[in-house]
Amino acid sequence: MTTIGIIGGGQLGRMLAQAGSTLGCRFLILDPSPSACAGGVGELLVGQYDDEARLVELSRRADVVTVEFENVPPDAARYLAALLPVHPSPSALATARDRLFEKEAFRRFHIPIADFRSVSSEEELRRAGEELGYPCFLKTRVFGYDGRGQWVLHGQEDITAAFDALGKVPLVCEARVPFEAEVSLVAARNPQGEFRFYPLNVNVHEKGVLRFSRPNAWPVTPDLQSRAEALMEKLLVGLDYVGVLAVELFVVNGELVANEMAPRVHNSGHHTIEGSRTSQFENQVRAILGLPLGDTTPLAPVAMVNLLGEVPDMGALLKMKDVHVHAYGKSASPGRKVGHVTVRADSEDELDAKLDAVATIVCPELAAKVPRRTKA
Ligand code: AMP
């Protein structure tokens, strides 16, 4: 029996282990928390990500190691990779983990990005603001996610406060992208070099956190899909990537501008569990085991709604036809991702109506922001 090691025991690790168990795999999951939710479906190894004894145990007991988040300490990834296969590779992880390296990689592969400056002093931030214009986005190079480690500067008057808040660590400052939509492409590549792409998702964030994802919603067109796939192919090949990779992009005047990449399964791909012939989780397992990748053709119109804070009354959701609740087994806490809902329908019009009904239960304050098949 194959044992897969996962670094990180959150919901992504949990769904990876759920998908991989149908292929007969066992999972050994390294996480600092004894209550990490992936522990409900795999064996938890409790320890810090750089705990040498835990890494040795992982390398002895697992056949291959993967990750469910990007902030794996680079030394830990390299240490493991000297002992057993690690996918994605430590160098791909190191690139995706750091916003500066990530931007340099996008440039190397001729993928458009917002203009940016690397910033390490208040003076450099002042110059960056002058050169990039306001508003601009100040971000920590590592450990930023879901809008954390980020500050929007509206003018020179914000520089000192922004630098005081974030300036203890290396930063990048980015020009604002006046986007009409945010989209993401999730793809998989196996060691044989085979690719699979999922449909482009339109993503709606609130305060930096993903709330809705819907493949093929406005403004996605077949042409935008092929341009996103071409760009993704450059990344997958350029990084010699093995596993699932997600790239988040802005759509500006119909053009794609890359924001960031995630070297793992992605929240905007959760609907592939019910919405695709092969989920992103199963394809991640297939990719890292060197197995043929599964078909990513959609099964039906589908969308995803995140559950933040606490899982609402499941009965109200589950009595709706083809609505699926995923509760991660996490304790309630304000803003915490505790689950998601997949809404599947027989037509895009039906999906619009069902998505409205689900949003009314889950997040009524955001019901007007639900992504639509056509421009509102
Ligand atoms: P990030 O953590 O980089 O994904 O940023 C979180 C959210 O902030 C994004 O989903 C966008 O809505 C917004 N954002 C980040 N960077 C920019 C930018 N350069 N221009 C406009 N909006 C941005």
Number of domains: 3
Structural class call reads alpha+beta
What radius of gyration results from the CA coordinates? 20 Å
**Strand count:** 17
Order of helices and strands: EHEEHEHHHEHEEHEEEEEHEEHHEHEEH
CATH-scheme architecture of the largest domain: 2-Layer Sandwich
Briefly, what CATH class of the largest domain?
Answer: Alpha Beta
Question: Ions, cofactors, ligands: which are bound?
Answer: adenosine monophosphate
Give the helix level as a range of percent: 25-40%
- What CATH calls the topology of the largest domain is D-amino Acid Aminotransferase, Chain A, domain 1
CATH superfamily of the largest domain: ATP-grasp fold, B domain
* Shape assignment: globular
Low-confidence segments, ≥5 residues, pLDDT <50? Answer: none
The number of distinct helices, counting runs of at least 4 residues, comes to 12
Q: How far apart, in Å, are the first and last alpha carbons?
A: 51 Å
Largest sheet: 9 strands, antiparallel
Mean pLDDT: 97
Question: What is the percentage of strand-forming residues?
Answer: 25-35%
Q: In short, what is this structure?
A:
This protein is of the alpha+beta class and 376 residues long.
